[in-house]
Amino acid sequence: MIPFLDLRAAYLELKPGIDAAIARVLDSGWYVLGSEVEAFEAEWAAYCEAAHAVGVANGLDALTLALRALDIGAGDEVIVPSNTYIATWLAVSGVGATPVPVEPDPATHNIDPARIDAAITPRTRAILPVHLYGQPADLDPILGIARRHNLRVVEDAAQAHGARYKGKRIGAHGDIVCWSFYPGKNLGALGDAGALTTDDPVLAGRVALLRNYGSRQKYVNEEPGVNSRLDPIQAAVLRVKLAVLDKWTARRRAVAAAYEEGLADSGLILPHVPDWAEPVWHLYVVRSTARDALQARLTEARVGTLIHYPIPPHMQTAYAGLGIAPEALPLAQRLAGEVLSLPMGPHMTLDRVQDVCGKCLV
Ligand SMILES: *Cc1c(COP(=O)(O)O)cnc(C)c1O
């Protein structure tokens, strides 16, 4: 059996450090926010080459609070990728704004900057690119469009921990960058967790306020906030895992390189990496018009695979109300029918990659 991702192996490799970190929080007697969260925020900001980080409860809350901190809400439009996880859209609709989808560049599967201009209206307030599969979106043209139209840029970096765009870490290219530490992400907690990073001290302060009841001082509420605080136990775990993130990313890169070599003659469409991108391989996604047969064959051979994502957001019942015709976004629809994510992670061995490649070639 080759699992899609082995989270237990990740825990076991770091067990003494993680267990000690959790015990440290339990022993401290301090269980909400506090020094453990502050220490992780400082370490995460430094890692992301950003001035500030604010810990929150999960990635969807990070996106939602980013939009709220920018005063984006009812009547506003936000440009989102048509090809993304539904959380990107849910944050936009969650604040009462309307997600306006833009199709991907078929080579990278990320939002195509050349298609953004046509989606801008007088109501557009922000562009929300996603660094899908750990591959950075093409940020410079997106930032240029945003500047010309006076729009904000919120990045969904839930899959891109440590990735670089033109040499600089994802973390503060746009106005605010949103992170998830869901267990399966490249930097994953042992439960839900998330954060935002930004170079803007005012935005960082606003998010810190919003995540904690809109309160800086206990029982003094400056605005109607929410409870979306990063749990100090998760912060302590994340500090242990952050220390090995680059080492684990290097292992993912070795796995990706081995797939690239092993699948060169497979007839599958393999990931394309632009020369300005340093991806972190959250997922290794191949494409095939015979995807379902390939997945069935791998399942039969006890190889775990997943589809990211089988139903694009505009085809979900949740967004039937937007009235977007299925054929309005043919690229998103086509990718949903052709993509397959192969086993990938820091505990995937190169022997197993060979094995999987062999089964793809049959
Ligand atoms: C995981 C993910 C999210 C949401 O993160 P949660 O912590 O699960 O709320 C948002 N966007 C993308 C692209 C993701 O992969």
Structure characterization notes:
The chain has 362 residues and is an alpha/beta fold. It is 38% helix and 15% strand. The protein has eleven helices and 14 strands. The protein has helices at 7-28, 35-47, 59-69, 86-94, 139-149, 201-210, 232-242, 245-262, 291-300, 330-338, 350-361; strands spanning 52-56, 77-81, 98-102, 124-127, 152-156, 164-165, 168-169, 176-180, 194-198, 215-217, 220-221, 277-278, 284-287, 339-342. The strands form four sheets. A seven-stranded mixed beta sheet has the order 1-9-8-5-4-2-3, sandwiched between helices. Strands 7-6-12 form a three-stranded antiparallel beta sheet, with no helix packed on it. Strand 10 (215-217) and strand 11 form a beta hairpin. Helix 2 packs parallel to helix 7 (232-242) and helix 3 crosses helix 6 (201-210). It starts with 6 loop residues before the first helix and ends with a helix. The mean pLDDT is 97. Residues 58-60, 84-85, 87-88, 130, 156, 158-159, 180, 182, 192, 194 line the site of pyridoxal-5'-phosphate (PLP).
Which residue ranges are poorly predicted, with pLDDT under 50 across at least 5 consecutive positions?
Answer: none
Strand order of the largest sheet: 1-9-8-5-4-2-3
Mean pLDDT: 97
Rg to the nearest angstrom? 20 Å
Summarize the structure.
The chain is an alpha/beta fold and 362 residues long. Helix content is 38%, strand content 15%. Strands 1-9-8-5-4-2-3 form a 7-stranded mixed beta sheet, with helices on both faces. It has a 3-stranded antiparallel beta sheet with strand order 7-6-12, with no helix packed on it. Strands 10-11 form a two-stranded antiparallel sheet.
